Amino acid sequence: PPQPPPVHVPSTIRPPPPATGPPPPAAPPATEPPDLPDDDAGARDVREAAALRELLAETRAEVDTARSELYAARRIAAEAKAARERAEAERDEGASRTARAETIAAEAVAERDAAVTAAAEAVASAAAMRAERDAAAIDARERAAARARAEEIAARERSAREDAEALVDGAAASTERAGGERDEAVRAKDEAVARARLAERKMQDALDEQIRAEEEAAELRAELENARAELAEVCAAARSTPGISSASSPAGDGYGAGYSRSVRYSRSDEAAAMEVERYQLVAEVQAKSRKLEEAKAEADVLRGVGDEAAARANKAERERDLAVAKIESLASELESTRESTRRAAADAGDVAERLAGERERLAAAETRAAEAERELASALAALANAASSVGKHRSDAGDAGSDRPSTVHEAVAAVRRDADARIAAAEEAASTAAAALEAERLERGGAEDALRSKIRTMDAAQDRLLAEIDAATGELERLDAELDATEERARAAEEREREALEGVAAAATKTDRLMEMLTEQEEW
């Protein structure tokens, strides 16, 4: 605000101390001198001097008054200056508070921006971690599916081997069981069809009974309507007959009166009989209605039984379909089992044929060897007999005999060697087949070991992926916690910013109020 102009104090007037009491009284007016007749000019001078003294006294009084007012104005100006200095100090303090509040608000805004940036980074990191976790989960699922497929393949191989080993012995039992189940399904179907037909017959009987009951009820209603019509005609005739008889017979005729009374009695009896018949008809109609209701109830019951039988028939049909499907699956399984059995039997038959051929050849060789040994034994016996009968003096015959047994022994040895060679060849073929079977068994065992090792590797990889997923989940939880903390700090910063803005607004309001007060004081 503009500064007030300083008060100019003349240097010739020495300022007195500030007045604490009322201003001093004015000097008394000078007494007018007496008129001097001798000298008019002197008297006039005296009067002028007295007037001047009076004017001087008034001027002094006015000067004292002006001086006291000046002192009061100076005191007011000093107070205004002090108030202005205080207002300026308060304004400066408010400005400094405003600057501090703005600084705090700027810091809060910076903290909020940093918190928002950190939250965005945390959200981005969390999204990246979630994407990595999803990718790891997808990879884990794929590996789990691959492991499941490998386990399924291994299980199929094991089951195929076990089936190939077990279904050969259980083919006949499966066939018998399938036949028994098929027979049971056929019997269940026949029973269900019979129950359904029985329920249909019962339902048809109930419907026929209901139709008959409705027809009887219709006939009874028609009879009741006819009876009511006849009763109405009789009542109308009874009401019209007395007037006619009285008009046709003369007054005082006793015969006419008796005739009219007899007619009335007969008609009243007929009306009573008709009423009784009507009651009987009503009772019969009610009985027929009750019978109809009972028939309807029985028909409803039979319909419910029929529905239940139809439901059971449908259930039996579904069970039959399931049994047929099961039989078909069992038949296909049996066919596949038979096929595998046939293949296994063919392989076993080939092996058995080869072994049988080798056994037959071996048996033939053994037979030939036995026959050769028997022939050799008989020849040796014959030679021994011949040698004993000829004697020792026939050395040439003995030498020839000794040469012949050696030839026979050589033939027997050759036959034995041939048989041994064939037996060795058969044993070698059997050992080769056993070695091939053992090699195939070892190869299958190696494949199973490789599959198990692959499964173990996939299990380890899955465990590693699960550990990575757990770590990623922990990291995501940590990031979520940091995000929550960042959001809490952001909320705290926003709260501090709001408080700072409220303080700034309060300081601005106070400053504006002080400036308004100062302006009002200066205007005053």
UniProtKB/TrEMBL annotation:
| Skewed-composition ranges (Basic and acidic residues) | 79-95, 155-164, 178-188, 335-352
Per the record, where are the segments of Pro residues compositional bias? Answer: 1-34
From which residue to which does any coiled coil extend? 189-241, 462-503
Q: Which UniProt keywords apply?
A: Coiled coil
Show the segment(s) annotated as Disordered: 1-45, 79-100, 155-188, 332-352, 387-410
Q: What is this protein called?
A: Uncharacterized protein
Species per Swiss-Prot/TrEMBL record: Micromonas pusilla (Picoplanktonic green alga)
